[in-house]
Amino acid sequence: MDFVTSLVIFFLVLIPLLFIWNYVNIQSAEQRTLDEIEMLALTVSDSLIRTKGVPENWNSSNVNVIGLAEEENILDPEKVSEFLSMGNNQYSLTKSILTGKYDFFFSITDLNGTVYGTIGNKPPDRTVVPVERYCQYKGRIVKLEFALIT
């Protein structure tokens, strides 16, 4: 009888612990995934505003790495125009070059609210990991928003 009582108590303690352990592991995995996505969003946005891309005079037919900078934090209007065109007309190709598997949203807006261009959208039913950067475009300070969507 003592053995059965001990066994029941043991399982009454063990089963909730297993559920808690499983919950903590799931939460931890989800947090790691969000951390990885956030790091990717930061890396891509950093590359967009700080590099010229590869090759430096890229276009939609030869681009390996998309960079929008004329120099660090100063955007090249021709590259921005090419990127916006590419993103809106060849979204899948642009996505594969920038993020691999994640959808993305991109916009350039000046401080008065004038929108210079956007790519994609931010659906309300999906997780959006946004990054905002400020840089110079056509002689104005602009807000560049880049967001990964899971």
Task: Provide a descriptive summary of the structure in words.
- The protein has helices spanning 2-50, 77-89, 91-98, and strands at residues 53-54, 65-66, 69-71, 74-75, 103-110, 115-119, 128-137, 140-149.
- The protein has 3 helices and 8 strands, in the order αββββααββββ.
- Strands 3-4-7-8-5-6 form a 6-stranded mixed sheet. Strands 1-2 form a two-stranded antiparallel sheet.
- With 150 residues, it is of the alpha+beta class.
Entry summary:
The protein is an alpha+beta fold and 150 residues long. The protein has helices at 2-50, 77-89, 91-98; strands at residues 53-54, 65-66, 69-71, 74-75, 103-110, 115-119, 128-137, 140-149.
